[in-house]
Amino acid sequence: MSAVSPLAPASFPELPPVAGVQLATFEAGLRYQNRADLMLALVDDATTVAGVFTTSLCPSAPVDWSRSILQRGTARAIVCNSGNANAFTGKAGATSAELTAKTIAAAFDIEPTSVHLASTGVIGETLPDDRLVGGLENLANQLAPATAAGWEAAANAIRTTDTFAKGASATVDLDGTAITVVGIAKGSGMIAPDMATMLGFVFTDAAVAPNVLQTMLSGAATASYNRITVDSDTSTSDSVWLFATGASGAAPITSVDDQRYGPLAEAVSAVNLDLAHQIVRDGEGATKFVEITVSGAEHDEAASAIALSIANSPLVKTALAAEDANWGRIVMAVGKAGQRANRDALKIWIGDELVADQGVQVRGYSEDRATEHLKNDEVKISVDVGIADGTATVWTCDLTHGYIEINAGYRS
Amino acid sequence: MSAVSPLAPASFPELPPVAGVQLATFEAGLRYQNRADLMLALVDDATTVAGVFTTSLCPSAPVDWSRSILQRGTARAIVCNSGNANAFTGKAGATSAELTAKTIAAAFDIEPTSVHLASTGVIGETLPDDRLVGGLENLANQLAPATAAGWEAAANAIRTTDTFAKGASATVDLDGTAITVVGIAKGSGMIAPDMATMLGFVFTDAAVAPNVLQTMLSGAATASYNRITVDSDTSTSDSVWLFATGASGAAPITSVDDQRYGPLAEAVSAVNLDLAHQIVRDGEGATKFVEITVSGAEHDEAASAIALSIANSPLVKTALAAEDANWGRIVMAVGKAGQRANRDALKIWIGDELVADQGVQVRGYSEDRATEHLKNDEVKISVDVGIADGTATVWTCDLTHGYIEINAGYRS
């Protein structure tokens, strides 16, 4: 087990219960020993669901399954196993996924198509169905309303090579009803030896119509998980769900024009952004949490493409690891992004220090001050490309020997 | 100075003269000490020229200059300095570029617009114009017809952090006339501390009309420099030129339908591919030369995109460094390429070992044999994505601690 990331939060947060959500974990021994590797969240009958899944064209069997049942709009359960991604496992993989849904459905007398699935771990190995079914059946005995300890156990059960468990919460008052949003996630930037996947499970006791919930989650995912990068790789299993139990008793939100939509969407976005930042903080080998803001782009998507080009550049990331105010590499990354940029109007800041302006290094620019900023655990780079008003912020980490250490290690 | 790459050729090749080409090098002390940092090739009056330049939207001043004079179709000189890329240097950079062309033009009584320019080295620092002009004026005294020693000196003068000088040649008989093609190049994958640039200078004594020469070079570049990758980064200065002096006395090739076009294009492609492979072999920290072939794609460009997705994946590259037959990461890279792939028909070979077929690991697949193949200095990965007939081959290297070592070092 790797040491805990130096960028990890001091402790797992105290997460509140969410009405209508029960949790269970179990040690099925699918791959790991002496730890839980199954997690179940059972949600109340009226729960609506939204999901965002990997854009990979080679998705895992549980992604295929969950995507196929999403149109139902309601759900009763999400079950996740760690240690095996059930990806690139052919018909056997599809069979294991279906078996998982049916076993949970039988245990709780619900429809198999109301059971969402997530798997994370090794690619290309079939799940041991006997142990899996045994474990799933045992989950029923462990079920309890979500408590702080329950959330933490659930966040731990879904870890693969994460060096810390990830959770976040928010509360919001909607017309006098206190609404809770809680999320747990796993992902250490991207992948450790064979461990594919970023997974997020977010729950609220608000009542939201499925199509509205999907809009809310899609927006939150775009502004969080789609704005982080560790090594530019994309897994076959990335998935995030948002479940709305309605157990708060608040009236349903059935339109994005409902005046309560905005505040709830903001809370959901805050939880997802917090989880996304934690994933970056667990980036393999990361020693710096890096925020990159691009302004002046042709439009927001162009700004995002430029920011991600900087964030994904191995040369920028190694310079950050070295605390080297090497702005030439930032120019290079802007130039290769394929988006409009005015070279002769380009501005670059490292922290608050304006390094380059109007196509040249700023007179009186202090490399010392820029370097001082880069010695922090949390660093900021800003770029204005001088075209129009598009802006975007993305988050990444530096690229260190630790990344190579983790990823060039032979699979254990 | 880094140790010579373990993947370097045993020695610099014995390059033949090219009729109509004279070379000079000089130690101007622009940045480096005790080595030549200026290279000039002066070519005969009738020489035609073709060029392919970086797609970066923040190109260097010499790229701007050379691109602007390319339409002339003929050229008399190419001059290159190492140690300073003259990129992101604003008006001062443009002035230095023009000054360089004018100084060479005055020295040899030729037109400034017949002088092509290349610069490689630090970004964002202005060139010391006095030392530059002094050095350029001294080049005239050094000029001599291209010999084997002259080529090697020229290949050395354009190095930045290259661990070895790069050259290649080919000869071809065109209707009884022996034609020579010689190229030199620099680039160590992509960039070392601040040293941007892949540069290639290729010369032939064939006579070729400018538009035909451009077609020839563009085709060669697509199949060579555009098929290699070390870290997915793109410099502000990448450029390659092809000069055809016509000094062999062979009749000009004025159409791609000329039956001599094919054999000459093949020789030019062979030289460029050889140079491109040498650049990969000098990849920063590289310990493996990796060939990746994708077949069964929707079309050749799709195959190339998938192959580059695999070649650029840090997770694939670290697995190769570890000699780990981790085909799950190859599936991941295929999936994220954004090109059509049939997950359930995907085939993956490591060396000659069929690892995965029809969506699952092959029964009887020997990880030992795959691992044995990966212990070689030169390794092959093949993928068939099961859609149509598109194919492409790309070349890359592995990602090791050496890459971090080189790129996270503070600028000296």
Summed up, what is this model?
Chain A contains eleven helices and 17 strands. By secondary structure, chain A is of the alpha+beta class.
Mean pLDDT of chain A: 91
**For the report, how would you describe the main beta sheet of chain A?**
7 strands, mixed
Overall number of structural domains of chain A: 2
Helix content of chain A: 25-40%
Secondary-structure-based class of chain A equals alpha+beta
Oligomer type: homodimer
Q: CATH homologous superfamily name of the largest domain in chain A?
A: L-amino peptidase D-ALA esterase/amidase
Query: What fold name stands as the CATH topology of the largest domain in chain A?
Result: L-amino peptidase D-ALA esterase/amidase
Q: What would you call the shape of chain A?
A: globular
- Order of helical and strand elements of chain A: EEEHEHEHEHEEEHEEHEHHHEEEHEEH
Detail the poorly predicted runs of chain A. Answer: 191-196
Radius of gyration of chain A: 22 Å
**Ends of chain A: how far apart?**
11 Å
Which CATH architecture of the largest domain in chain A would you pick?
Answer: 4-Layer Sandwich
Biggest interface, chains and residues, is:
A-B, 71 and 71 residues
Number of strands of chain A: 17
Strand percentage of chain A: 25-35%
Name the CATH class of the largest domain in chain A. Alpha Beta
Q: Treating each run of at least 4 consecutive H or I residues as one helix, how many helices of chain A?
A: 11
User: Reading side by side through the largest sheet of chain A, how are the strands ordered?
Assistant: 10-17-12-16-13-14-15
